[in-house]
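Translate sequence into structure tokens.
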Amino acid sequence: MKQYIFFYNIAHNTNQHKEYKIEANGMMDALFKAKKIKDQIEAETLTNVKLQFKGIVY
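Result follows.
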């Protein structure tokens, strides 16, 4: 499996980023998992979270 790396910008005014590595079979699977994580973070923090794709680790 490949690891897909995503950045989540959590606090817009402080430019606080967190990096998540998601193991998936393909890009669509990785995007689905990343969206689930994004929705969980938004529910916990009650803020909008910006998602950015960084790259792939083989």
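Note: The mean pLDDT is 89.
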